[in-house]
Amino acid sequence: MKRIITIFAVLIMVLTVAACNQLQRSDHPDEGYDESLYNENDNPQIGYVGNPVDRNPPNGRNYSKIGFSRQQGKELYNATDGGSVPGPDVYIDRNVLARQISFLTTKLPEVADTTVLVTDDHVFIGLQGKKGSVSDKTKYEAKRTALSLTPRYYKILVTSEAKMKQRLNDIGSKLKQTGNRDVDIEGWIRQLEDGDSGGFDKS
């Protein structure tokens, strides 16, 4: 009899703890949850610019991915983390964005090599031409490419000067070694954003 009572008491405790955890989850959403606008974990066969997969194959079965959402202001929960927030935390994966911009800009006819640095509100693009120089038209197309991928508040700066492109490469190399903890990197980036270094086309 005592054994049954003990088991029953333990069961009640387990159910109580589970209920409290669920309540806590609703009151305090998982703030570590993020949803990148540029997520690389999607199906690699569809949804990417420049992907050779046929968007309208004869069998009609392989469709390009489509995004859709409908929200109402009175909704308190989202379907991603169950938290009491109006939607998922949204952020931009800057490494992924930099790779996408550099990949697409190297497809421009005159461009042989591209270096891209993405901060919280700036995109710096360094271009190297196949024949040395890069025309203003190509720099304009590179800027348009970046604008098509970034939020509107981003400022896009493009250069074809070897010195400035090397500066971007230096920052990237140091980032790989020290991450974002290096004071010099912050200073260099701030100089670029303030225009102290010159060399970038701001048109």
Note the overall shape: elongated
Gross CATH architecture of the domain at 94-195 = 2-Layer Sandwich
Structural class computed from helices and strand pairing: alpha/beta
- The CATH class of the domain at 94-195 is identified as Alpha Beta
Q: What Rg do the Cα atoms give?
A: 25 Å
CATH superfamily of the domain at 94-195: ANL, C-terminal domain
Number of helices: 5
Q: What's the CATH topology label of the domain at 94-195?
A: GMP Synthetase, Chain A, domain 3
Largest sheet: 3 strands, mixed
Strand order within the widest sheet?
Answer: 3-4-5
Helix content: 25-40%
Span from first to last CA? 84 Å
**Averaging pLDDT over every residue, what do you get?**
71
The proportion of residues in beta strands is 5-15%
**Low-pLDDT residue spans:** 22-29, 42-55
Strand/helix succession: HEEHEEHEHH
Number of strands: 5
Protein name: Sporulation protein
Pfam family, one: Spore_YhcN_YlaJ
Signal peptide: 1-18
Keywords: Signal
What does this structure look like?
The protein is α/β, with parallel strands linked by helices and 203 residues long. The protein has a domain at 94-195: 2-Layer Sandwich (GMP Synthetase, Chain A, domain 3). Helices cover 39% and strands 12% of the residues. It has 5 helices and 5 strands, in the order αββαββαβαα. The strands form 2 sheets. Strands 3-4-5 form a 3-stranded mixed sheet, with helices on both faces. The protein has a two-stranded parallel ribbon with strand order 1-2. A hairpin with a 3-residue loop joins strand 3 and strand 4. The termini are far apart.
